[in-house]
Design brief:
The chain has 113 residues and is mostly helical. Helix content is 61%, strand content 0%. Helix 1 runs antiparallel to helix 2. The relative contact order is 0.10.
């Protein structure tokens, strides 16, 4: 998912949670159950969700033009998929990926005590 799509998702989620929270407050005020325990817990959950989505959207928006390309480059650096680490040696070179020549068996010597 691109950062632009993720930003739209977070912004839409934040608006939906805020609208749902406002509608809940108005409805519970009309029927007199605003301060019931269940409604307070529900409204707190909506508030937490709205704040999470809002903060996430703002952080993505402030990132600006960094976009997906830099995220992909950062992921490549962490996974080491054939990229160079600057020393001229490929990252991950020399690793056997598991079994190697031993067929998965360990060549540890047991010490006698």
């Amino acid at each position: 998912m691109s950062n632009k799509a993720r930003l739209g998702f977070y912004a839409l989620g934040s608006m939906a949670a805020i609208i749902w929270l406002a509608q809940t407050v108005v409805q519970t005020m009309q029927d007199g159950t605003l301060w019931s325990v269940a409604n307070i817990i529900f409204m707190l959950c909506l508030l937490v969700a709205a704040l999470y989505f809002l903060v996430s959207a703002i952080l993505l928006w402030r990132r600006g033009s960094k976009g997906v390309d830099e995220d992909a480059k950062a992921a490549d650096r962490h996974t080491g998929n054939g990229k160079s680490d600057g020393s001229g040696k490929a990252v991950g070179a020399g690793k056997t990926g598991g079994a190697g020549k031993t067929g998965g068996k360990s060549h540890q010597t047991k010490s006698k005590r």
